C-alpha cells in the first residue's frame, strides 16, 4: 500500500491532522516541539460517493472502499539536513514515503507556540523545502561522484545519468525542488532512480482555525500559500481545519454533517485532502459489484486490464482472458448491468485495454 507522509514545522497541526484523518488518537498532539518522535502510521479510507450508488444497484450490504496509508512524521526545524532537531530521523522517514502532505499553519493564536515566533506560511514552506533541497544536493553530489568513472569509460547510461544529475543540481542550487525541474519523460524516469526527497509528489494542507473555515477562500494566509505553491512549486493546496476534524472524529456521519452545516461548510476538508493525496500518488479506482459485495480496487493510472486483475489475485493476471466492463456513469444511468448490455454500453475488452477511473469490471481467467 502506498504511503503519504505528513510533514511540516513543529506545532503546525500535523499530529492533530493525522488523528483526524485516521479517526484515531494514535499521535500525541501537544503544544511543544517534537511531541512526535517515532512516526505514527494509519490506514485511511478514501471517500467515494460512487460506492453507495453501486451498492444500491448491486443490492448488497457489503461495501469495501479503497484505502491508503498516512504517516505522521516528526516536525522539521531549520538545520535538519545537518542533523538539527530530529533531522536525520526526519529525513529517513520522509525518504520512506511515496508522497508528501506538507501542513502549513494559516492561523494566528498566541496560545499555540510557533518555532519562529510568528506566523508566515511561505517562510515556513521555504524552511522545510530548503532542508529537503540541501539533503538532495548532498545525495546528488555523491551520486555524480559514483558515476564519474563510468562516464570516463564511455558508458552511455552513466553519461545520461550524469546529464540528468547536472540539470537537477542546477535546479536545486536555484532553490527549486527536483520535481519542479523541467525534464523529459525519459529523464524523469532516470531521476526516479536517485530517490530524491524533493522529487516526491507534494500537496500542501493549509491548516486554519475553526472560525475561519467557512471563509478560508479569502484567508490571506491561504491565498499566499496557494499563489506561492502554484507559481514556484507547481503544487496543489487544500484547506483543512485539523482541530475541527479531530473534534469530529468521534461523531457519527450524520452528526458530523450537521456540525459542518452549522459552520457553513458543505464538505469536510479531510475528504478533499484524502482524495487529492490519492490522485497525487498517481492512483485511480475501479470497481467490482455483485450481490456478495461492492468493492473499490486501487491501481496506478495507466494500468491495463490484466494488471488490474492481478490486484485481486495473481492468478487473474496470469490466466487473463478478457474483461467485461461498463463505465460507472453509464451503469448508474441504465440502472443495471442488464440494461447497460441492452444499450450496448457493456463491453468486452482484451489485454491491451487501459483501465479508466470508475470502470466496473468482471474478469474472466483460466489457469
Question: Can you walk me through this structure?
Answer:
The radius of gyration is 23 Å and the shape is flat. The chain is of the alpha/beta class and 367 residues long. It has helices spanning 14-22, 50-58, 87-95, 121-152, 156-173, 185-192, 220-233, 242-247, 253-262, 269-280, 305-312, 314-318, 328-334, 337-342, and strands at residues 3-7, 40-45, 63-64, 67-72, 99-105, 202-207, 236-240, 283-289, 294-300, 320-327, 347-349, 359-365. Helices cover 42% and strands 19% of the residues. Residues 26-37 have low confidence and may be disordered. Strands 2-4-1-5-6-7 form a 6-stranded mixed β-sheet, sandwiched between helices.
